[in-house]
């Protein structure tokens, strides 16, 4: 008996998957546990496993196609088995909505054609124009009859002024066209071809979640300038004796984790009729990859030392860049750190990573003159900006957290002990 292979739910937020690669072809034999396809989800590229042995009788979507959850991907059965009824059922259930839309479109187009009559152009007839027979995208608007006449007489339509509805070129414009009145064409310009990029599942999810965050969470921002001279010196000394190289971001993450223990309201989430104050401190670190932004999580960050945070953070970053992160490695965060300092960005604001209450945007360490004891001396300063959800965190609470963070980074010995 034939078995349907449907798009499985491979992550908690997945709504559809894109076929990244088929590992089998129609006619291939498979066993239970075989990986038949790789599917791009909103979080990572996952493997699709089959649980029945048999022959691949049909593969429906091509590589690159988006397949909704539960929709048929392939059929496994005995070689030569009749699966027409199964395919017909899948096709009818998947096309019911699109058939309805198509019928409405056909009715609308038919009505418009009858209304426009002979001068209706099925390609350009519904485009807005500029009053001179040219659509906004630069294409010439003309009736089919006028186009045929112009082609026969060798007339360039762009030289003809249209007198039809909305500047469309019609029959009488071709008949009355005087080549001697053709304006001199301006010097030609070189147009670069547009490129179309498919939106990945990850990018779709990023767009959806951050749009929801920005427009449903009342964001506000507070910035503080921190003296990083002590961190600069301490990090240098630690890296001279440590096998694991510690980055400035590792120090910031550790300082945030420690500060969150003192300010539990920052380590919270909005749940509609209640606020959850999280018992664990799990810090997500924003990592940019080609497809967008991922946020791997360092669990129980406050309980780990700098070396452990550095090692775990580097491992997660490498996995993110190689698209090897497991879904569970991107879940459960209670706070997020986003650092653009390595790109020379001095200051920016970040959109809160739901369901977190806050996200910290970290800028570059700047070498600037500062005044100490009445004298101007070289200094190393860093700006950080806390984005907060005003439903959870008030301005005073955010300011107190930032001042605790500042104190810890300006006296980093406590982070090492």
From TrEMBL:
UniProt-listed PROSITE patterns: BIOTINYL_LIPOYL, LIPOYL, PSBD
Skewed-composition ranges (Basic and acidic residues): 127-139
Domain Lipoyl-binding: 2-77
Cofactor: (R)-lipoate
Family annotation (SUPFAM superfamilies): CoA-dependent acyltransferases (SSF52777), Peripheral subunit-binding domain of 2-oxo acid dehydrogenase complex (SSF47005), Single hybrid motif (SSF51230)
Matching Pfam families: 2-oxoacid_dh (PF00198), Biotin_lipoyl (PF00364), E3_binding (PF02817)
Residues in Peripheral subunit-binding (PSBD) domain copies: 141-178
Catalyzed reaction equations: N(6)-[(R)-dihydrolipoyl]-L-lysyl-[protein] + acetyl-CoA = N(6)-[(R)-S(8)-acetyldihydrolipoyl]-L-lysyl-[protein] + CoA
Keyword ATP-binding: no
Job description of the protein: The pyruvate dehydrogenase complex catalyzes the overall conversion of pyruvate to acetyl-CoA and CO(2). It contains multiple copies of three enzymatic components: pyruvate dehydrogenase (E1), dihydrolipoamide acetyltransferase (E2) and lipoamide dehydrogenase (E3).
Family: Belongs to the 2-oxoacid dehydrogenase family.
Name of this protein: Acetyltransferase component of pyruvate dehydrogenase complex
Natural source organism: Fodinibius salinus
């Amino acid at each position: 008996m034939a078995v349907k292979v449907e798009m499985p739910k491979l992550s908690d937020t997945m709504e559809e998957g894109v076929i990244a690669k088929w590992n089998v072809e129609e006619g291939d034999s498979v066993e239970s546990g075989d990986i038949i396809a790789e599917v791009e989800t909103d979080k990572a590229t996952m493997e699709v496993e089959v649980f029945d042995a048999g022959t691949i009788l049909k593969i429906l979507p091509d590589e690159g196609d988006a397949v909704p959850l539960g929709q048929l991907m392939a059929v496994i059965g005995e070689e030569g088995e009749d699966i027409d009824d199964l395919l017909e059922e899948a096709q009818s259930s998947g096309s019911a909505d699109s058939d309805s839309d198509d019928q409405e479109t056909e009715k609308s187009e038919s009505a418009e054609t009858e209304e426009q009559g002979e001068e209706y152009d099925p390609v350009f007839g519904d485009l807005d124009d500029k009053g001179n027979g040219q659509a906004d995208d630069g294409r010439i608007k003309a009736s089919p009859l006028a186009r045929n006449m112009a082609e026969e007489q060798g007339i360039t339509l762009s030289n003809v002024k249209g007198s039809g509805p909305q500047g469309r070129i019609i029959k009488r414009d071709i008949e009355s066209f005087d080549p001697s009145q053709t304006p001199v064409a301006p010097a030609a310009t070189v147009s670069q071809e547009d490129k179309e990029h498919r939106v990945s599942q990850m990018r779709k999810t990023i767009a959806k979640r951050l749009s929801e965050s920005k427009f449903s969470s009342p964001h506000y921002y507070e910035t503080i300038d921190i003296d990083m001279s002590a961190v600069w010196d301490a990090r240098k000394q630690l890296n001279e004796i440590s096998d694991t190289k510690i980055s400035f971001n590792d120090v910031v993450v550790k300082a945030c984790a420690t500060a969150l223990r003192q300010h539990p309201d920052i380590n919270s989430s909005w749940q509609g009729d209640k606020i959850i104050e999280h018992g664990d401190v799990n810090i997500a670190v924003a990592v940019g990859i080609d497809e967008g932004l991922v946020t791997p999580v360092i669990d129980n960050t406050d309980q780990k030392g700098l070396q452990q945070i550095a090692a775990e953070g580097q491992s997660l970053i490498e996995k993110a860049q190689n698209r090897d992160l497991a879904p569970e490695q991107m879940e459960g965060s209670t706070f997020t750190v986003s650092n653009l300092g390595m790109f020379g960005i001095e200051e920016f604001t970040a959109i809160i990573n739901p369901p977190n209450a806050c996200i910290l945007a970290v800028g570059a360490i700047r070498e600037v003159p500062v005044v100490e004891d009445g004298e101007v001396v070289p200094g190393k300063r860093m700006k950080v900006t806390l984005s907060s959800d005003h439903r959870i965190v008030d301005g005073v609470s955010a300011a107190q957290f930032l001042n605790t963070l500042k104190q810890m980074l300006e006296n980093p010995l406590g982070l090492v002990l």
